[in-house]
Amino acid sequence: MKLKLILLAAALPMMASAQYKSKVWSPDNGDGTYTNPVINADYSDPDVCVGPSGEDYYMTASSFQCTPGLPILHSKDLVNWEIVGHALGNLYEGDSKLLEHFSKPQHGNGVWAPSIRYHEGEYYIYWGDPDFGVYMVKTRGGNPAGKWEQPVCVIRGEGYIDTTPLWDDDGRCYLVNGWANSRSKYASVLTVRELSADGTKAIGQPVIVFDGNGTENRTCEGPKFYKRDGWYWIMCPAGGVPTGFQLAMRSKSPYGPYEAKKVLWQGKTNINGPHQGGWVHTKYGEDWFLHFQDKEAYGRVVHLNPVDWSTGWPIMGKKGEPVTTYKKPLSSNPSPITINPMESDEFNAPVLNKQWQWHANYDEKFGVPTAFGTFRIYTYKLSEDWKNFWEVPNLLLQKTPADNFTVTTKMRFTSKAEGQFGGLIMMGLDYSALVVRRTGQEFQLVLMTCKAADKGKPQTEEIITTLKPTAIDKIDYKPGIHEDIYLRLTVSDSKVKFAYSLNGKKFNECSDELQMKEGKWIGAKFGYIAAETDRKCDRGWVEADWIHVEK
Fold this sequence. Notes:
By secondary structure, the chain is mostly beta strands. Strands 23, 24, 27, 32, 33, 34, 35, 36 and 38 form a nine-stranded antiparallel beta sheet that branches. The longest helix is centred in the N-terminal third of the chain and has 10 residues, at 8-17. It is 4% helix and 43% strand.
């Protein structure tokens, strides 16, 4: 594997400011219009706010158990977005018990439906963890792309989800939230309570301000709290995730009563369940709404719709129906600058690029960058009674970036013991992976698939071919054997197929089309798997040289 020159500290500012243009999906049409989705990736439950300059927009989204958590995305025009950081490292720094709890994959738990706000020089993010309570994290020095403080538990308890603060004109702070039926055994209600002025603790009791039970507004959740022209506004989805719609409700008091109106729905479009997101008013007098669309295996992708307040209500899209192509928001950019969330990676940086997440709290034994222009992922020691990869915390994954794309990686697998394996995976409730596994002094190329991994179903295996090692250590002390290989997965219409190559030129297809499946509250994700069944031997590893995402 070739060595690459790395300019360490000097290169970091350049890396942070590099503009990345996706080869598989870019919403900016270059003619003053955009095409939805503005982010064709699983940024579930997005929320947005504008900074003090009026030119900087920041978005965050649910991250559940994945780390680093709470992604921070930045845009100058609400269309072109880049990942600039994360507000959370591991869940939850400062709490040793919860740090240990989230050291194993807690699929679908953790960070639900956050809100991001700018208040008195700092950015704040609130979210509900349905098992542990309401949490808040804020910036350190007002830079959302920089270091955030440790999270604070604002309200401890079960069932709290989808929280948003509102600092009123008099400095008082209120919080709206929804409720998780899976924990509280009731749902479809929204409650408001008062917090301390600094937003760190509850000082008032909750009041039910909206009840969707027994109506088409069932499953009302994900509320966002605003104030406009003397009215308190709560905007929330209702009607269910894939088939629901967006509500807006208003009152002269934060505690209601609220009158409600449907302001965005699918209508005659093919954009199902358009709802749950954030409203933003720009310095140019325009109003926009960022929200998600549930695309099953691809997750919940982000759309941008105009908002019309001429009737006194925030009617979204085109008379309530979502737009597909529309004129871009006004901005100060004199010419189009196309920026998209990063996907491909040369692994040349001394830090992991920001599109990657682990499947649980990070441990340095999962993997680290190297000085050789690679990223190393060590084999995870599977449990004695393992059935599938649902238990693996060191899956290094990223979101799918388009409906159709190809992923190719050049990697070396190094094995120190029998049965160690590593390769490329598409992970979800069902998964499929193409891995190199040691057998004796050779390697097998194995296709591993599993249906209903979340229910403990065992995976199945198909041996594709046997491979001679590329290299063998000549020393007597703990020698390893190595395999250099190119692995590829191709996605089309929610199906994935795999191929491999020994020279990077001729690829051999080695699977039929396999149906992708979303994960627990997240879309399917692709990346690297490295694991083994021998709990006593030295670990093997995947040495990822590069990964390219292309059409």
